[in-house]
Every structure is written in structure tokens, then in C-alpha cells.
Amino acid sequence: xxxxxxxxxxxxxxxxxxxxxxxxxxxxxxxxxxxxxxxxxxxxxxxxxxxxxxxxxxxxxxxxxxxxxxxxxxx
Length: 75
Prior knowledge:
- The structure is a single chain.
- The protein has about 80 residues and is mainly α.
- Helices cover about 35% and strands about 5% of the residues.
- It has one domain.
- It has a two-stranded antiparallel ribbon with strand order 1-2.
- A hairpin with a 5-residue loop joins strand 1 (about 45) and strand 2 (about 50-55).
């Protein structure tokens, strides 16, 4: 899933208007959008849940190896 030119233009216009108010996209997101505009297929990957991520080695939402089960208290 890659943004079309129209969607990208709408997002850029929104960011420009928000920036006038001292708001707008975070610098990291703005940099990502700039890189994707240059090479759209370079850094965006579609995860199995349909969400986009900015790199192939991003940490999954839940790494099951890192989960420690809580002990239940005896009633």
C-alpha cells in the first residue's frame, strides 16, 4: 500500500497549514515522507496486519519471547 500523489499532496498541504500554527508532523515522520517521496518502495513495508512500517526489521508489537507471565495470587 503506497500513497497516491493526490493523497501525498493532501498530507503535505495539511502539514504546511499545521506548521503555520506551530504544529504539524513530527520531524521523524516528515523525514520519512520525504524519503518515501523520492523512492516510494524503498522504506515502506506492509505488515501482516495491514499496517505500514518504515523498515524491514522493526520490532513487532508483541515479541512473545519477551513476555513474562504474571503470577496469580492465591485467594
